[in-house]
Amino acid sequence: MPERSPRSSRFPVGAAVELAELERDPYPVFARLREREPVSWLPALNMWYVTRYEHVRAIILDTERFTTVSEHSLLLDTFGTHLLTTEGALHDRYRRAVQPHFSAGFVRDHFEDPIRIAAAELIESFRSAGRVELRAAFARRLPIQAMLIACGLPVTSELRIRQWYDSFEAALANFTLDRTVRLRAQRDVAALHELLQSVMPPAAGPVDASLLASLINMPTGERLGDDEIKRNLSIILFGGISTVEALILNTLWALFEHPAVLSRLRADATLLPEVLDEAIRWLSPVQSATRHVVKDCEIAGVRLKAGATVNCMLGAANRDPRIFPHPDNFDIERTNLRRHLGFATGPHSCVGFYLAKSEARIALEELLTLLPQFTLVGSESGPLRGYEFRQPAALTIAW
Ligand code: HEM
After folding, report:
1. CA of 232 to the centre of ligand 1 (A)
2. Which mutation among 145, 148, 243 tests ligand 1's pocket best, with the greatest number of atoms within 8 A of CB?
3. What was the pLDDT predicted at 3?
4. Would the pTM of this model clear 0.70, i.e. be above it?
5. Of the residues 52, 183, 201, 217, which has the maximum number of CB atoms within 10 A of its CB?
6. 239 Cα: distance to centroid of ligand 1 (angstroms)
7. How far is the CA of 3 from the centre of ligand 1 (A)?
8. Residue 353 near residue 240 (C-beta atoms within 8 A)
9. Can you give the pLDDT at residue 173?
10. Three-class DSSP category at 290
11. Any residues with Cβ below 6 Å from ligand 1, and which?
């Protein structure tokens, strides 16, 4: 099979894709690519796009030919070496250290109650107003508070974390390597490390349920170095913020678009787990998982060269009709709705997926209980945006 050059005219579908179109609504683009050019070179992004479920899944499971490690990675440039920029033994070591902290049992026993209190307090702060723009007042705030609880950081650091987060987000989208953006993020990562250092409990001190305390108190031999703890906590903090914000907002968006499901949910809140999984499939908060080609290889008849960047489009895989019949329908009765790849799969699958789902479930439960019969103010909501991370720009509700 002759190698297909990225610039070849054999790639009319990917070559024609424009960023503005992806940003506005990636799903029609995904559908075209998935059917006509499932492994496609996108000159607009200078990377490969993979859009079918089977290929996306195969690539993220294939750690011999694909890796998260690259000297060009903005994740590496911003946060250094951590869970999402390592493979093999080092990655396993990091993962073993943090994973127990995010298991279903641990989250249930230690984090759900404080997160519920935080959610209820946020809602109380605007309840008397009768309407609110929920993204700014609730969905952007609760995930930061939850991460402070889980990691063991003072609640007073919410505003600082918000500012640092925005700087990190800019650095991770800094494809033009703008010096100011990069330097600001480096300064803010250093400030976050300082904060972590200042609250690190003494080794062999009293162990609370926080991630920081349990990492400090790991047995010698398994314990990560202080710097490793700070780098991994930084990516964990970063990973748990706008993702959960998007899950809360996208689920509400899906419910407002499907009022019959919202009515069913109001009558029976036990449907929430299905609603959340279907929302992750239908409007995936994280739309892609990026990999770099380790050695020349072929996927679906397309030659990929070592060093090339491949974006595995989770959002496109989650709408693949080969796996999810009538994929554009939001349908909580799907028998396989948990097969979505919204949290990826394999060694780098989301370590915080249970916490994310708990937070979103608690957020929705508290909204449904404390603000009964809230409705959408359509004129002050939307639009949905984004092809890497996707969520509504604003969502106003009234009650
Ligand atoms: C709805 C919310 C969330 C979504 C959709 C989501 C999605 C993802 C996805 C798709 C990946 C895989 C990335 C890849 O393979 O390249 C991932 C990894 C990761 N996520 Fe999440 N995430 C969410 C919430 C969270 C939360 C709450 C945390 C913090 C506890 C978190 C921390 C991480 C970390 C540290 C990784 C890297 C894991 C590794 O490389 O071993 N995420 N997430």
Report:
1. 12
2. 243
3. 37
4. yes
5. 52
6. 5
7. 34
8. no
9. 86
10. strand
11. 60, 68, 83-84, 95, 102, 235-236, 239-240, 243-244, 247, 285-286, 289-290, 314, 342-344, 348-352, 355-356
Of 279, 322, 283, 324, residue with least CA distance to 54: 322
Helix residue ranges, H only, the chain = 12-15, 19-24, 26-36, 53-61, 74-79, 88-98, 104-110, 112-127, 134, 142-151, 158-172, 179-199, 211-216, 226-239, 242-257, 259-267, 272-282, 314-317, 353-370
**Cα 289 to ligand 1 centroid, rounded to whole Å:** 10
Euclidean distance between CA atoms 343 and 329, whole angstroms: 20
Here the tokens at position 305 are 């060269």
Low-confidence ranges of the chain (pLDDT < 70): 1-11, 203-207
Q: Model confidence over 157-203: pLDDT tens digits?
A: 999 999 999 999 999 988 788 999 999 999 999 999 999 999 887 76
The Cα 7–Cα 201 span in angstroms is 54
Atom nearest to 235 CA in ligand 1: 35
* pLDDT score of 174: 87
What value, to the nearest 5°, has the Cα angle with vertex 251 and ends 249 and 253?
A: 70
User: Ligand 1 atom closest to Cα of 289?
Assistant: 16
SS3 of 231, please?
A: helix
Position of tokens 């999810």? 324
Nearest protein CA to atom 19 of ligand 1, as residue:
350
Q: What are phi and psi of 106, to 5 degrees?
A: -65, -45
Question: How many CA atoms within 13 Å lie on the side-chain side of 187?
Answer: 10
Got the DSSP string for 177-216?
--HHHHHHHHHHHHHHHHHHHHHPPPTTS---SSHHHHHH
Q: How many other C-beta atoms lie within 10 A of the C-beta of residue 259? A: 11
- Residue 66, classed as helix, strand or coil, is strand
* pLDDT tens digits along 108-130: 999 999 999 999 999 999 999 99
Distance 284 CA to ligand 1 centre (A): 12
Q: Tell me which residue of 345, 143, 361 sits closest to 244, measured CA to CA.
A: 143
